[in-house]
Design a protein that fits this description.
- The protein is of the alpha/beta class.
- It has one domain: Metallo-beta-lactamase, Chain A (4-Layer Sandwich), CATH 3.60.15.10.
- It has seven helices and 14 strands.
- The strands form two sheets. A seven-stranded mixed sheet has the order 6-5-4-3-2-1-14.
- The longest helix has 10 residues.
- It starts with a strand and ends with a strand.
Amino acid sequence: MQITVLGSGTSQGVPVIGCKCPVCQSTDPRDKRTRTSILIRTDKVTVAVDAGPDFRQQMLREGIDHLDAVFITHEHKDHIGGLDDVRPYIFMQDNKPMPLYVEETSLPEIKREFSYAFSDHLYPGAPTYDVHIIDETPFTFGDLYVEPIKLKHYTLTCYAFRIGKFAYVTDFSEISDEALDRLRGVEYMIIEALGRHKHYSHINLEQAVQIATDLKVKKAWFTHCSHHMGKAVDVNAELPDNMMLAYDGLSFVIND
């Protein structure tokens, strides 16, 4: 299973429009962050987790010419804004609707945002989706055994996804003991860390490090980072040896 970080930034991305801070002015490519998303590839399937406003750019950058499904963590714009851009994959794949795995409470916002894709009078060329409603029941997609794990993102529900030794955990402010128990045994984790200060709807770097430490993961990468985090080179120097900031284009393989 190959994991590629499509984007590792917050809803504004990094650099932030008009910002002159050292991070936004940095020339280090690790400090250039598009909106948060990952790609999961196996011998049988290619799956995106979320499709934000930078989705088209991300998929072109990685040269992805096939997509089998999109898993949605939650309905915020920076995680669903690029769903229209699955159209080329639909057209290339015999016009089959794109499988969309999404929690029931997130679906109304997707239908509102992309109403033309759900209309009774479908416009030619509009995207079509094969919607699968998820809850915390594990499901199989291709050769992936996926365990959705419910998190609290301020007042919203957000889902983490565990696949064997790997977990993708982003956009949450609280994690229950039950959710932590379901993550135990994970060896590789991408987990959000918005910045250094506490936030009402996201966890910060200190909290993310603590969760990764408690779970005794072999390797943790921190994503959904804002420009307030600091430069990657400086932050990485402070972190434990098995932890680092994720960056756009990061790719690694997890063997069974």
